[in-house]
Amino acid sequence: MEMFKEVLETEDPDDLIANYGMGKSLFDLEEYDKSIYYFKKAIEIKKDYSIAYLYLGKSYENINDLQNALETYKKGIIVASQKGDLIPLKEMENKKFELESKINGNFIKG
User: Fold this and answer.
1) Helical axes 32-45 vs 16-28, angle rounded to 10°
2) Residue 108: inside a domain
C-alpha cells in the first residue's frame, strides 16, 4: 500500500496500477468508502478496466449503496463482455441478479 501511495503522491497520480492497487488494498482492509475513489479513478484512466468495475460495485455494496452498486455492475457487464473478460463478467452478472432481487424484495437466501 505504501508503494502505491508513493507512486500516486510523488510520481504519477494518474497511474492505473497504483490507483487500482490502492483501491484494492483499502478494499481488503474493509475501508470500502475510501476504496471507491481509487476504483473510480482507475476507471477514469482506463474506461474498459473491468476488474475495477467489479470492485467498485462491491465497495458500494459493502457501504449499502445498492443503487450505485447495481449501476456499476451494469456498466461493468457491458465493458467486460466487450473485452471478453469472462471471470469479472460472470461475477458482475451474478451480483447484478442478486441486487435486483434484493432491491425488488424477492431475495431468497439459498
Assistant:
1) 160
2) no
